[in-house]
Predict the structure.
Amino acid sequence: MKKWISIIMLVVLMGSMSFSATADQMSTQYMDCLDRLNNYLLNTQSIYIDLNQLQRDFEALGNYSNGECSALSMYTQVLINLRDSRYTDCEMYLQLLQNYEQKINAVIYTYPQYSAIGSVSMLKTYYDARVYELQGNYNAAFDLYSTVSMFYDSLARAQYSYNHRDDSTTSAEQNVIGKRVKIVKSANVRTGPGTSYDRIDGVGVGSSFKILDCKKATNGYAWYQIEVSGMLGWICETQTNLGGGSGSSNSKDKDTDKKSDKTDTENDTDIKNDIDNSSGSESNSGASSTSGSISGSASSSEAGSISGSSSTAINNNSVIINIIPKEDKWSAWSAWSTTPVSSSSTRDVDTKIEYEPIYVTKYHYRHWKYYNTSAKAYWYSYSEYKGANYKKDSGKWEYKTTTSPLKKKTVIDGRQQYEGYWYLYDTTTEQNGTKAITYYRYRDKLN
């Protein structure tokens, strides 16, 4: 009796050991799949990840880890469809994936080391941005890519979409680029064209800047890009002489810092009038001035001609004159080119960076590996052989993917066999990262 009890306990123990080993193997395979998915989403060009094989591996794990593998298999299928630009299939899988959102969130929460794996909502936002980019709606694409900038290649695509936003710039906006603009109401300088962007500086009344770029904000107002203290920033047209800012404006239309307003008011207490492009002005004291550069105490003054126009202000016999430099005249911009161009005192050069995808051809091989009882060795077939010489439960499909074709060996039953007993079953063209390309354009000074 004791002997039978010992035998039963031994069988139970061996069964539990076998189950434990199987569980350990599945855990190792699961972590390996997560690692490959994370590496793919990191968009590291030096590491090649076979997404098709990864999807099959997740699928083979079935309901392991409370069904997370099934969710991740569907998640990977969405990435495959995005890679192959199959947007209709992608949308279908995304709708199905909504039901597994909690599973994906559980993976993100349980394994924080795989930080590149984003939520289902993040993946959906990325998909929507890709659709906008495909449609040429670069403004909408840029806005969405910016909200998920840390996911996959969103940052590079956001830069690409931002660069192409220039394509929708109107001719009226292009006409002001290169002109000088004068600040007539103290204004904020922001990191982007809109009040939603951070303030980086402020400019006071009377300042003059060259317009480097012009964009329309969502509220319809133009924003000018200028250089202030070595930094590039944006100001609203309503604060300038080009945007009708010389008169009063509705408070909602202007972008003015209250502190800057106070400072500018204190600095200008000695100035009663600020007149642009005029040859003279009169104050209550009857003093006058002519075009020139004068600073001093006098009731009237004269000076030689100076290139440019001037603005004058008179108070208590004090004359203050601000000289606006003569406006430069430029030729039209050249076409964009990848040929480098150097800037000079008579040549203005503009650059932009665009990100283009890198595509590679992938060769997908497979063979059916099984134990041949007649040859007493493992054999490899192009089909799933289970004939007379097949050892039961010994067969399985094996897969191999390369970026260059394998060497041809022999032909079996009309099928080409490659080195390693592999058989080609599919080829795909896949994106393998992006490359940055710098474009140049220039214009020459005419005066």
Summary: Confidence is low (pLDDT under 50) at residues 10-21, 245-253, 257-321. The longest strand covers residues 347-372.
